[in-house]
Structure formats: C-alpha cells, structure tokens
Design brief:
DNA-binding; 73% helix; homodimer; 2 domains; Arc Repressor Mutant, subunit A; mainly alpha; 211 residues; 10 helices
Chain lengths: 211, 211
DNA sequence: TAGTTCGCATAACAGCGTTCTTTTAGAAAA
DNA sequence: TTTTCTAAAAGAACGCTGTTATGCGAACTA
C-alpha cells in the first residue's frame, strides 16, 4: 500500500513540523525571558534551536510572524494569571484581585509585557487580528464588571468600564516599568490600589450586598 | 594683543559648537517627527546635518547621549502644552484640562512620547537624572492638586495623587497609541474623561466652592 | 533509474551603532 | 611669510541586525 506509506510520511512530516515549530517558540520564549527582548534576534534564536535562520523564515515568514506567536503566548499567560484568581470573595475584591494579578503578570514577565504593550521591538507591531485576540484575554475582567450590573444592556457598558480600568492598570504598570515610581514613598501597588478603589467606587454600582 | 585674539577665537569656537549642537538636535528632532523613531539612526542624522557620524560621537558621546537631549526636549514641549492651559475656570476643570493637554501633546507628538514613555529605541533608556528632570514637567498638575487642599502636610499627598492621575492618563494614552481602542464605540477622550472624573471625585476634596 | 522538487545551510547584502585610521584645515611658531 | 603642529572631521572598517540568494543533498515522482 504505497498510498498509506505516503500518507504516513506526510503525517510524520506534519508532526515533525509542528514539533519543530513548538520547539522554536519554546527556545525563543526562554531567550526572551532570560535575556530580554534585545537578545531576541533571528540569529540567536536559530543558534539556540540549532538550525539556520532559513528555517525560521520558511516557518514564520519573518521576524514579525515569529514575534506574533510570542505575543499571543503572552496573552495566554496573562489569561492564566487572571483565571487563577479566586472569585470566592465579593465582586469588588475579585475585581481588585484581577487587577493585581494583571500587574503581577506584567512584573513577573516584563519582557513579555513589553512586547505586548510597549514597542520594544522596532520590527514588530501587532496587527488588527492579534490586537483583538489579545483583548479577549481581558474577558474575565469584563465579565466580573458585567456581573455587577443587573440590567440587560450592560454588555457594552461593562466593556467600556473594563477598558477604563484596564487603561488605568496599564498606565501604572507602564510607568512602574520605566522606573518613574522608583523614588516614591508609596509603593506602586499602593498607588494602583488607590486608583482602583476610586474607579470602582465611582463607576460600579454599590457592591456591598453582592456575594 | 595676542591673548585677546586667542580669547576671541576660543569664544567663536565655543559659539560654533553651540550652534552646531542645536542644529544637530533640530535636524534630529524633525527627523523624529517626520519619519518616526525608526529613522533616528546616527547615519541618517549625520546625513541630514551634512556631516559625518564622528561629529555626533564627539559631541554627544553616543546615541544615548543624543537621544537624552531629545528626551528632555520632549518634556519641555509637554511642559509648554501644560503651561498653555488656562486656569481661569475652577480647579476641577483646570485639572481635567491639564490631563487633556497631556493627551493632546502625546497624540500630536507620538514619536516624542514614545521616546519618553515607551521603549521604542532599544539603545535608549533614560537614566535617573533624566527621569527626575522629566517628572518635573508635571509640576503644574501637582500644584493644581495641592491647591485643592488647605492643610500644611499636603505637599507629598499632592504628588501622590498627581502620580495616580498621571499613571491613569498615561495608561489611556499608551493603549490608544497601540491601537487597542480603535474599535470602540466610545472615543478615547471620553473613556479618559470618565476615569478622570472618578479619580477627582474620590481623591480630591469637594471643589464646588473653589474659584 | 533518471529527473525533480523541497528543506536546509552557507554566504551574501544592506543597514545599524561604534571605532579606528587618515586626511585636512587653520592656529601657533619661526 | 613659511613651516610646524594640533585638533576636528571624513571615510573605511568591525561586528552586529533582518532578510535574501545560492547551492547542495536527500527524498518523492515517473
């Protein structure tokens, strides 16, 4: 049965491609986390993987294509941070915890966060598709906010408020990363907490009686 | 009088150095504004000025040194935006206006803002001195906030609140620049306005009776 | 078995920040 | 005025970068 042999070969080849692809991304990821975005050059990646740069270009097209995958990985990691947050307490504390989880992710994975939200790699800017995929990682935050409302039309409103809160957290994280908060008496999480309390107090309905 | 001739020569030389320095920075600045941070290479700058790269290195040491000057120029421009804000209305509206002026500066000078607050140039990170000099541009905001308080101990408190508001505005601007707000029904300034109102309501004393 | 296609490595190209070497213009000295 | 010296600038070079062209060898097709 030659056709079967061919099929098996194709399948094996496909499998090999997939394994190689994941291996490359794993190596690029550890390179990014251990040595920062500056170390993320096509040559370094190829060297780490143990192949030539040609493989990277046939596999991902160009550097943008490779970083795109890391970009999405970053949002997956962010989502995992958010999903790990317990929502046993009341909604208000849950929302605070989500925001602090967001900050924890950013601080523990600064190199990833820089790719996702700062322009550390001149050759890379996420396209529209990836921007939307990334935003989906904030679904949990939007859901928690929607749960604060009882009305029917609250879907869009929840996303709007989620964006306000997201932007606020992002701003604090961004300035903290640029060391703009280095010489302050108040710690960065405390400053963030203040802003969050203010936003929740003003933008969300009274949550005292929520679970 | 030979010593006078020498003095005049030295002075003329000094003057020439200063003119050249400013000319280089002007050219680099227009390069940055017209073609973005990617065009800001030592070779392009030298070509625009009409000299060799050697001149840039003897004058500024390295690229970091040259960008340092642009970084400070950016904060000067930001300060001018803030100083142009009329503080005739009440304090609350003045603070809002300062924040929107900040956003206007950022949006009108995205390339400058990127240098100041995003890491668009891998070779450049501002040092501690410049970070502090930059922060001083927010003096007007801190002053306006301090004016909201009557007590004596309000200096530090005003700076803390200023940082909260600053981070919030920065976050909104940063996400807007990364196009994360592109597909929203609510405009970016409206989202920002919401966040600001919430912060002012919660963090500042009642301002109804202020001038 | 002969021909072809495909995957990969090697080498190259243009451009980057930076530095080394060489030229040159102009002040100082004679 | 002519020579000498110095300081500044130009140009080439080095080791990087992303990307592309070339070439080779192995595996499928006929």
């Amino acid at each position: 049965m030659r056709t079967n042999r061919v099929k098996n070969f194709r399948a094996a080849q496909e499998q090999h491609q997939q394994n190689l692809r994941q291996g490359i991304l794993d190596d690029a990821s550890s390179l990014l986390m251990q040595e920062g975005a500056n170390a993320l050059t096509m040559r370094r990646i190829a060297e780490t993987v143990g192949c030539s740069t040609t493989v990277l270009y046939t596999m991902f097209g160009n550097k943008q294509g490779l970083i795109d995958e890391l970009y999405l990985r970053g949002f997956d990691m962010l989502q995992q941070y958010l999903e790990a947050v317990s929502h046993l307490g009341n909604l208000r504390n849950y929302i605070y915890a989500l925001c602090h989880a967001y900050r924890n992710f950013a601080m523990a994975n600064q190199t990833y966060y820089s790719i996702m939200f700062l322009k550390v790699i001149p050759e890379y800017t996420p396209d529209e598709t990836n921007l939307k995929l990334g935003q989906a990682s904030l679904k949990l935050l939007a859901q928690a906010i929607r749960d604060c409302f009882t009305g029917e039309e609250s879907e869009d409103k929840a996303w709007e408020i989620a964006r306000v809160i997201w932007a606020t957290v992002h701003g604090h994280v961004g300035l903290e990363m640029m060391n703009y908060f280095n010489y302050s008496d108040v710690s960065a999480p405390q400053i963030l907490e203040r802003a969050l309390q203010a936003l929740v107090n003003e933008l969300l309905p009274d949550l005292d009686n929520s679970q």
